[in-house]
Amino acid sequence: MTPGSTSETRAPARRSRAGALALRLTGRLAGGVFVLWAVATLTFFAIRLIPGDPAQAVLGGPGSQASEEALAAARAEYGLDQPILVQYLLQLGRLATGDFGSSYSLRTEVAPLLLSQLSGTLLLAGLSLAIAWLLALLVATWTTRGTRAAEWVGSGLEIVGAGLPHFWLATLVILVFSVGLGWLPPISTPGPLGLVLPVLTLAVPLAGFLGQVMRESLLDALDSPYALSARARGESETGVRLVHALRHAALPGISLSGWAFGYLISGAVVVETIFARPGLGRTLLNAVTLRDVPVVIGVVMIVALTYILVTVLTDLLGRIVDPTARA
Amino acid sequence: MSALEVEAVADRLATHRSAGPRHRFGFGEILAALFLLFVLVAAIAPALLSPTDPLAIDPGDAFSPPSLAQIFGTDESGRNIYSRVVHGAASSLVIGVSATVIGLGLGVLLGVVAGLGGRVVDFGVNRLLEVLFALPGLLLALFLIVVIGPGVVTTTLAVGISTAPGYARIIRAQLIAVRSSAYVEAATVQGRGRWWILRRHLLPNTLAPLLALGTLGVGQAIVWASALSFLGLGAVPPSPEWGAMLAAGRTYLSSAWWMSVFPGLFIVLTAVCATVLGRGVQRRTRQR
User: Which residue ranges does the record assign to the ABC transmembrane type-1 domain (chain B) (predicted)?
Assistant: First the structure.
C-alpha cells in the first residue's frame, strides 16, 4: 500500500466524520429550540393558573388599588384583552426577540436587568465547577486503589461532601472562616476575597458527586487491558493513572456537566442569598417571593437556554475526549 | 435535582465492574440504620426521646450554649433546641417521604409508559423529560411555588414533581434493559403472552430497584425541602422544621452557633445515612 492511497482513503472518512458531527450538532440545536419553545409554552399556560387579574399584577398586585382606567390601559398595553391564543403568540414573539417585558416590582426592563446579573452567577458557577473538578480529581486519583485506609477516607470524604447541603455548608464556613478566624468576609464583597467562601460552598458538594463517579470509572480503567499493556511497557503506576486512566475516568464526569450546571444554579440561589451576593439566583428568589412573573419567566428562559448550550457543548467535548465515540 | 442519576451512574459503573459478593452488613450501614431508627422514633413518638415541650419558651434562659442539661443549647426565646430537633423530625420526614412518594409515583408512571408504550409514546415522554430537565434543580420547584404559592404542601409537591423526571429516566432505562434481556427473549420464544412476560419479568425486575431509589431519594428530598424552608418558602420559623430552624438561627449566627449547627447536622446525617443505607439495599437487590 502506498502512502498516497492511505491519504486518499482517509480523506473521505474524515469528511464524513465532520459531516456526522455537523449533523449531530444541527440535530441537538433543533432539539434545543424545541425545548425552549416548550418551556415558553409551559410557563405561559402555568402562569395563567395563578388566581387573580393579570392586569392587577402588572400594576403591583391587589394591594395597589389601581383605578379602572389604569387597569384598562395595562390590559391594552400587555394585550391582556386579546383572546388567549393571540396573547400566547404575542408572548412567544416577544420572548423570541429577547423582550421579557418589565419587572412588576422593580419597574425596569427584565432583559437588561438579568443580563447584568448573569455574569456574576456564571463567574461563581464556572469557578466552582473548575474547583470541584480539581478536588474530585485529586481525591479520586490519590485514594483509589491505594491503601485500605486511603480508600476509606477518600470515599468517606466523597459521600459526606455530596451529602452537605449548600445552606448548611455556607453556615459552617461563615462560622469557621468569618466568625471564628476572621479571615474572610461573611458577606460576599466585590473583590476576589469575597468569592472564596461562596465558591468553596458550591464546589465541595459537587466535588463529592463528581468524585464518586470518577472513582468508579477509575477503578474500571485501572483494570482495563490498556492499563495493563501500559504497565507491561514499563510505565510507572503514576504515569498509568495520570495519562491513561484519568482520560477514561473523566468521561462520565464530563457527561454529568449538564446536571452539574443545574446543580450549581440551584446552589447559586442559596449561596447568593446567604452571602448577599448579586446574581441570577438571588434575583430569582426575590422574584419568586414577590411573584414577579416577568422576572421569573426571564430567569427560567435564560437558565433553560444556558442548560441546552451546556449539554450540547459537553456532548461535543465527550466526543473529543472519547476516541471510541468519534467514528 | 437528580443527584440520584449521579448515584445511578456510579452504580452502573460498579455493576459493570461486578465487585465480589458482599453479604454482610458493613459497619457504616449499621451506624446509618441506627441513626435513621433514631429519626424514625423521633418522628413517631418524640416524647420518648425528649420529654420537654419544643414550643415552651423561657425568656430568662435564652441563648444558652450547649450544656449537660440542654445538650444542643437554647434559642432566642429559651426553647430547647434538642427537643425542637427531635420534634422537628416528624415534619421533615413526612415532607421528605411524601415528596419521594410523589416523585417516584410520577417517575414510575412516566418511565413505564415510555418503556412500554411503543415508539411514539416513548418519543413524546422523552421530549417532555427533556423539557423538564431544562429547568434544573430548584428552578422547577421555585416556578411551581410562584404558581401555587409558598407553604409546606407546595414545597412537598414541588420537590416531588421536580424529582420525577430523574426517576422516570432511571425506570425507563431499567425497563428497556430488562425488555432486551435474554430471559425475556427466551420467554417470548417459548410463546408466553405479553401480559405473562409483563407480570413475571418486566415489572418485578424494573421495580426491584425502587426500594433503593426510594431510600436514596428520601435523603435528597429532605435536603431540598429544607432548602426551600431555609429560603422562607416552605415551613415557617415557629414550627420546629429543620430547615426553618436553620433559617431562624441565621440571624444569630455570630452569637449562637448552636442554633444553626445542630438542626443542619440532623439534615446532613439523615441525608448521608439514607445514601449509605440506600446503596446497601441497591447492592443487595442487584445480587438477586
Answer: 89-278
Give the best residue of A216, A222, A282, A306 to mutate against chain B (max B CB count within 10 A): A216
The contacts of residue B150 (CB under 8 Å, 6+ apart) are A289, B232, B233, B234
Please give the pLDDT value at position B237: 66
| CA separation for the pair B248, A145 (Å, rounded) | 44
Contact partners, residue A218, CB within 8 Å, separation at least 6? A140, A141, A144, A145, A241, A245, A246, A248, A249
With a CB cutoff of 8 Å and minimum separation 6, the contacts of B29 are B276, B277, B280
**Does some domain include residue B20?**
no
CATH T-level topology, domain A109-321: MetI-like fold (1.10.3720)
Sketch the domain layout of chain A as residue ranges.
31-107, 109-321
Which residue has cell 485506609?
Answer: A149
Interchain contact, B253 vs A209, CB within 8 Å: no
ipTM given for this complex: 0.77
- Calculate what percentage of chain B has a pLDDT beyond 70: 84
Distance (Å) from the alpha carbon of A259 to chain B's nearest alpha carbon? 8
| CB-CB under 8 Å, A175 with B257 | yes
Could you say which DSSP state residue B66 is in?
A: P
Q: Do A304 and B135 touch (CB under 8 A)?
A: yes
A79 alpha carbon, distance to own chain's centre = 34
pLDDT tens digits, A286-307: 888 877 778 888 888 888 888 8
What phi, psi does B213 have (nearest 5°)? Answer: -60, -45
User: Scanning every residue of chain A, which has its alpha carbon at the shortest distance from the alpha carbon of B138?
Assistant: A266
Closest Cβ–Cβ partner in B9, B139, B271 for A252: B9
Contact between chains at A270 and B231 (C-beta distance less than 8 A): yes
Full DSSP string of B88-134: HHHHHHHHHHHHHHHHHHHHHHHHHHHHHSHHHHHHHHHHHHHHHHT
